[in-house]
Amino acid sequence: MIRPAAESSNAAPYAERRDTDGPGSTFDQMLAAAATRSIGWFNVGRRRTAELADRVVALEPELTHLSDARLTERVADCRSALIIGGLTEDAVVEAFALAREATRRERGFRHHRVQVIGGLTMLDGRLAEMETGEGKTLTALLPAAAAALAGIPTHVVTVNEYLAERDAAELGPIYRRLGLSVGLILPDHEPDDRKIAYRADVTYCTNKDLVFDYLRDRLAIGQQRSRARRLLREISGRGGGDSLLLRGLHFAIVDEADSVLIDEARTPLILSATEDSEGQLEMRQLALEIAGELVGNRDFKLVARTKQIELLPAGEERIAERTKGLPGIWIARRARHELVGQALSAIYLYKKDVNYIIGDDDKIQIIDEYTGRVMPDRSWENGLHQMVETKEGVPLTGQRRTIARITYQRFFGRYLRLAGMTGTITEAAGEMGATLGLQSVRIDTNSPLIRRDLGTRMARNADEKWQMVAAAARHQAIGLGRPVLIGTRSVGASEALSAVLDQLELDHVVLNARQDSQEAEIVANAGQPGRVTVATNMAGRGTDIKLTREAREAGGLHVILTEFHESARIDRQLFGRSARQGDPGSYEAIVAIDDDLFARFGGGARAIADQLLALGGARWEQIAARTMRRHAQNAAERYNRMIRMNTIRQDYELDRQLAFSGRTE
């Protein structure tokens, strides 16, 4: 039942799957996606998984009565069986049962049967789709512990350092009871600390930390990819294995797999070096000055859907006139067009408190659009970051030069065994199968889901929307005594809503990239009666809001979404903060027709929605909102899927073009 891992590439410096030849044609992708969905429809392997889960649960009475010393002996016997015989069904059943019992002794409760099924699904190299609040973090412990007991280095990958640190701390005692060591990777950890963490049996880390450490390893070993050559270097004392951070890519369990492997797959991970920025400030200041003189739709065109700037002939002529006689980069037609185009992007596409914030140290800090968090030490490439710095008048950093790059999908495809979990994979199941060969399996909930949908309302503009949101929050928090979570898409939006709530004297707290240090405290208090929390996507994936008894009796957490995302999966993640683990809860959406998603992808549907709103009444409002959401999100998903495929193809194509001088990573 437990499928063997993929074979390691003989040319690799350490264990990893052999790289493929690329993603294939669009037709190949469609066939692979259809095949994956068909396997899911026919429930392949689910009956056998359920039978094994029953065997795991059946061992409960036997293990409960063991002394701690006898349990330790039983773990040692199981570890020996796994190391010698591999992940056989009998050994895996024993390992899961022991992990359940260790959890009971450390935490006072065991894994539910559905969590055991989820764990078996992941150990088999599949994606487990579990409803939000069903305990995915605890579920991942089962396959991670079983693999680690078998001697397989295991990485549990989370979407942010808050979750990585929380999970490692909460589950550490359980692993240690099983005789396993736990490592943790955080952004500020030094290389020596990282080496120690990766040498643990189970390592918790973020997707970004993991990929960048992998790229650093590729640079450390240079062009010598052969294991034999690396060993010779170690023997001769010339650049040994001590320089490597990881032990290889053996087994990864990716939390919020759709976020990491789908949403963030549009942009490659780039490792860069800083170059001298001397003389760059004046050049970029002039570019911004020229860009500020250009007129939209006459000199340039803003393509909303792709978020790109297209220079028009009139604009090119204007740039040529303004730079006539200037030396250096201004002489080259293409170079000056790119520089002014970059300045236009900095002015019109990269917005303060949306795409970035200015930190206390006067540095531009990029905000991750999917998590709402600041990405420390990250910068835009090809001089864009310096252009934004020039626009904001902050000290200029050195321009970054790319020295290594890889996409998430390509990186995780190199693991010998890959698995994942998420609450929202249905819409992307086909793409997961086509790109990574991962089958998605839906896991039942342990308790009936009692989350109520209060519908969608649509306003004509942002100001009207914020008033509607404030009224809804007041009704739920003050009128009904329920905790309320209001989700916004940017720092600027969260602060705009906060200002409205202040005017109405409605007490609330704000959680965005500026308050990341207070996140744990804000989340811990968000489940109190009458508490109103305004948050960006920081309060989305992985956030567990614990309700007090009074809040539960009042109806549980109420979630208000204030702007639809490009993917319905991200909307569902926010809604999933309510009604977790059998608790009551509800959600609603209050959006505006001029929201960014509708402006970029609404097309002709915006005119239809506008006409429906003119009819008045809640019924037409609901129809207008559903029409706009369906049309815009479908268009956005198609566009983003195309971008992801193109990014992967470009990655492979770049490898082929640079084959004579080495790889791109």
Any idea what the radius of gyration is?
26 Å
CATH class of the largest domain: Alpha Beta
How much strand?
5-15%
Strand order in the sheet with the most strands: 3-4-2-5-12-1-13
| Major sheet summary line | 7 strands, parallel
CATH superfamily of the largest domain: P-loop containing nucleotide triphosphate hydrolases
In total, the number of domains comes to 3
Classification by helices and strands:
alpha/beta
Low-confidence stretches: 234-240, 659-663
Give me the CATH architecture of the largest domain, please: 3-Layer(aba) Sandwich
Count of DSSP helices? Answer: 26
Q: What is the typical, i.e. mean, pLDDT?
A: 87
Termini Cα gap: 35 Å
Counting DSSP E segments of at least 2 residues, the number of strands comes to 19
CATH topology of the largest domain: Rossmann fold
Could you describe the 3D structure shown?
- With 665 residues, the protein is α/β, with parallel strands linked by helices.
- The chain folds into three domains: 26-252 and 260-267 and 407-442, P-loop containing nucleotide triphosphate hydrolases (Rossmann fold); 276-398, Pre-protein croslinking domain of SecA; 451-592, P-loop containing nucleotide triphosphate hydrolases (Rossmann fold, 3-Layer(aba) Sandwich).
- It contains 26 helices and 19 strands.
- A seven-stranded parallel β-sheet has the order 3-4-2-5-12-1-13, with helices on both faces. It has a six-stranded parallel β-sheet with strand order 14-19-18-15-17-16, with helices on both faces.
- A hairpin with a 5-residue loop joins strand 9 (356-358) and strand 10 (364-366).
- The protein is globular.
